[in-house]
From TrEMBL:
Keywords: Cell inner membrane, Cell membrane, Membrane, Transmembrane, Transmembrane helix. InterPro entries: Mce/MlaD, PqiA-PqiB_transport. Signal peptide: none annotated. Residues 7-61, 118-209, 228-291 form the Mce/MlaD domain. It comes from the Bacteria. The lineage of its organism: Bacteria, Pseudomonadati, Pseudomonadota, Gammaproteobacteria, Vibrionales. This is Paraquat-inducible protein B. It is found in: Cell inner membrane.
Length: 359
């Protein structure tokens, strides 16, 4: 049985070097050749041992002496005598480890590198202000589950491609199309600072999901709203709206903007928002939305009239909504309903005190 391995550089092996399975020779290196970006190493396995190769098989360089130093001491592990002289390659079954480069088997530089690598994934930036660098950790509730290995510009699609790896013990939960990745940034407002640890070093957070296995994900700017209820806002201009802009009800954050794009005829801006399911009942079929970002200054003969939201909305921006007062409360808005986003509020809108009982 013949297999082709790929490595970035040729390890200290030669033709005839042993192929080991748990220190037992089951084959040998037959030849090797240069290729773009690395080297191919062809190995043969005795037919009676070919059953040992499965879809979880991982290969690594087993040449020389392995030395591992830690606070508890130094661990020295020597390869069999033949591999000390001729070099060698070992393999075993390691679930959750990426083992292929295209159609060829991947050869790791040593067992430690193979055991800790896990599975590589690709993240794509969604906005221009997402700053990601090599070594940035990926965390789940503060626990490191992976890290960024490489960033590459994609000029054609005007975005950055991020190659990251997920540690092997978390591959099953974090490499399916239900997983959600976002970049954590510090939030500074009147209520204090959120994500304080991101002030020193930003990181990527992830929520596990379920679904089919995949290796490509969008990198979002905000955390996922579980079971959030979606609505659509239409406006003449984008203004200061962007993904992550909070949706407020009486200055309490109840949702956020998830997407901003041009309408199908480029005559309006379409903003998709998600409302927390606990507050979705507040959006009625006749609710009115308006922008509370920035300061509106109007000059007249009688002087200047300055209108502004809260100081927090001046810093972060925001969209708020309310429901008109009337003799009968209108029904709850259907998910996906479209509303017009007003540039500013009429004076009467801020005075509405419509009672909306919780379901």
């Amino acid at each position: 049985m013949t297999l082709r391995l790929f490595a970035n550089e040729l390890p200290p092996v030669k033709e005839g070097s042993p192929l080991l399975y748990r220190n037992m020779q089951v084959g040998s290196v037959s030849n090797y050749e240069l290729t773009d970006g690395g080297v191919y190493i062809n190995v043969t396995i005795d037919n009676k041992y070919k059953y040992l190769v499965t879809n979880q098989t991982v290969f690594w360089n087993r040449s020389g002496v392995e030395v591992e130093a830690s606070l508890s001491g130094v661990s020295v592990k020597a390869a069999p005598l033949k591999t000390l002289i001729d070099g060698g390659i070992a393999f075993d079954s390691l679930p959750g480890i990426e083992n292929k480069t295209g159609k060829n088997w991947k050869l790791y530089e040593d067992f430690g590198s193979a055991r800790k690598f896990g599975q590589s994934i690709t993240l794509y930036t969604t906005t221009a202000d997402q700053q990601v660098s090599k070594g940035m950790p990926i965390k789940y509730q503060g626990v490191k589950v992976g890290e960024v290995m490489l960033t590459l510009p994609d000029f054609d699609k005007q975005r950055v491609e991020i190659v990251a790896r997920i540690l092997p013990e978390y591959v099953k939960q974090l490499t399916n199309n239900g997983a959600y990745f976002w970049i954590v940034k510090p939030k500074i407002g009147l209520n204090g600072v959120k994500n304080l640890n991101a002030l020193v070093s930003q990181y990527i957070a992830v929520e596990p999901g379920v679904g089919k296995t995949t290796k490509a994900f969008e990198l979002h700017d905000f955390a996922k709203v579980d079971n959030g209820v979606e609505f659509i806002l239409q406006s003449e201009n984008r203004g200061s709206i962007k993904p992550g802009t909070p949706i407020l009800y009486r200055d309490i954050e109840v949702g956020s903007v998830t997407m901003v794009e041009l309408g199908p005829f480029a005559d309006r801006v379409i903003s998709t928002i998600e409302i927390d399911p606990d507050y979705a009942y507040l959006v009625r079929s006749n609710s009115v939305f308006w922008n509370v970002s920035g300061v509106n200054v109007q000059f007249g003969l009688s002087g200047a009239n300055i209108k502004a939201g809260t100081v927090d909305s001046l810093i972060r921006g925001g969209i708020t909504f309310s429901t008109p007062e009337g003799s009968q409360l209108q029904p709850k808005a259907e998910e996906g309903q479209t509303f017009y986003l007003n540039k500013e509020a009429d004076a009467s809108w801020t005075q509405w005190r419509t009672a909306i009982p919780a379901p």
